[in-house]
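Table S7 (text form). Paired inputs.
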Amino acid sequence: MFRLKLHWQILIALVLAVVFGLATGRDAQILGVSFYSVYDFIGTLFLNALKMIIVPLIVSSIITGIASVGGTHGLGRLGGKTVLFYVTSSLLAILVGLVLVNLISPGIVDGQPAKELIGLSDEAAAQAQEKVGSAGAGSVAEVFIRMIPPNIVQAAANGQMLGLIFFSILFGFFMARINEAYAEAQYNFWQGLFEVIMQITEFVMKFAPIGVFGLVAKVIADVDHDQLAGVAATLGTFAATVLLALAVHFLVVLPLLLRFIARVNPLRHYRAMAPALLTAFSTASSSATLPLTMECLEKNAKVSNRTSSFVLPLGATVNMDGTALYECVAAMFIAQAYGLELSFTTQFTIVVVALLTSIGVAGIPSASLVAISIILTTIGLPVEAVALLFATDRILDMCRTAINVFSDSCGAVIVARSEGETNVLTDNDIKSSGKQA
């Protein structure tokens, strides 16, 4: 089985989880141990492994990403334009997802929260509502107060990721401004830590099929057999919401930015980036696609190596439009399914955390599930709810990775045009090259 690709392993695990969950239910036992407790044990181990890598992964990724900007051009003109585009495009993607998930409400079935379909008791829902209510109490100013924790170690231990992310951004920003010898030593340390955590993340994800089996089998064992059709319909609506939001960002928002800011024909850019987009879709890894993305951008879109070599590696680390959109929709979907009324402050918190956590998501398959755990923890929802997302995660991961890569390429084109590069592929360039051909 381990010779199969990971997504096929997860698919097989999902099928087995449904079969075993239906066959055993909550009460079946073997040697005096209930199957349900075994499922819970396996799922808890996998979730703990994901939680274990959250802090070092987010901190090392953000610090190295921000420091690389400051180290290259001191966050000057080129770096400033790059960061501005990445923040703007990610924020627009999140807002698109937030609007559509509020309009469609995939977590609501026949006017009622889908909590029964996911095996959630009224008592657990009430506890979640109490946590979310306390998390969203007060004014928006409290969100910013939570961004500056009095004790960064305590914040990390308590899962207060918003403050930890803000500290990491500050650390990376000022790390690039100290004495060069010290800055290089610091950068090497954090980059080395990031590489190690990436390896650990990939190692943990190898056990994803086993973890998925335990998590999903536990959910299925808790569900009434007559409700399975409702579960499938709910997850289908969620997936359709994500795909629609990704399509709006891919086909409307980013093309408008290309047209009106870079003065580039979006259709031509789609054609130029087609090989990279197909590779990103098939691999679900923006990091693995990076070499081909650079080649397409330089040879087909005519962006200079000076711009692409700076913008794209940074984008592969900190620019995750599709991921940020997915995180927001997933958190809102789970909250809706739990029957929670999210205040403006809580939704604002989701937007901020989705934007910041997307900076630190590793460019490997399914890494965004780690970031979603951060959002759920921040707004007071149980991390175990992430099990709901595994059934549709692979295809959505492939789609959002393609969006991530396309957004990186759009950023490179817009920055190149703003820097006065006249060789960037435009309508006139293509027409003239077509005549010459």
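Next pair, protein 2 of 2.
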Amino acid sequence: MIKTIIIEDETLSVTHLIDLLEKSNLEIKIEAIISSVADSIKWLKSNFPPDLIFMDIHLSDGKSLEIFKEHKILSPVIFTTAYDEYAIQVFKTSGIEYLLKPIDYECLKEALITFSENKLIINNNHILTANSFKQIEYKKRFLVKEGKEFIPVKTEEVAYFYRTEIVFIKLFNGKSYMTNYSLNHLEKILEPHSFFRVNRQIIANVNTIKSFFKGSSGNFFLNVSPMHSEKIQISQERYYILKNLLS
């Protein structure tokens, strides 16, 4: 079990990082999420050092580099930032990696391997390698029924999955078929770079997304092709995650 804390003041960045860590399938326990320099110093002085720290450089009350002046941090730190001018400074601390936002999964994986190669406590004292990341076999095809026939459908032919009272598969050719899969289960077996959970009713192939925008009401919406029968609303949080995903 890797005990970690996240020092970050942007909710969307925290959510994105947690999503990536969950994708890694490593045993990571997040001990705390802290948003300021002052609270970080207070937490670090009051608790046992974590195995690993994820730390944004720009926080709500200043730069996180100030934390090192007030407290001796022994834990390795993976810095995350939208800026690239602090690389030299962070490696004068206990920083082991420097990730630019939006964080890419492959870059995060390499950072975690670097963390392990420094012979730090990880995964019950086993050294982490690229093979330590569980390889998920994502769904390649679905079997759908049309009349008395069963038809194999390749996953890349799917535009989106949507739920009314049951879940349907909508293909790029406009046809819809019922499926017995729940959206929650589909979310686990679909390749996450290709399919995005829009809301509680829809998982969309990123290639079906034509536009997304903030409406005059302040709500956020999504346009897909082929069109969905209802207007697709997306939360502000998912809107910004999607924006990072498609950037």
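Confidence is low (pLDDT under 50) at residues 119-127.
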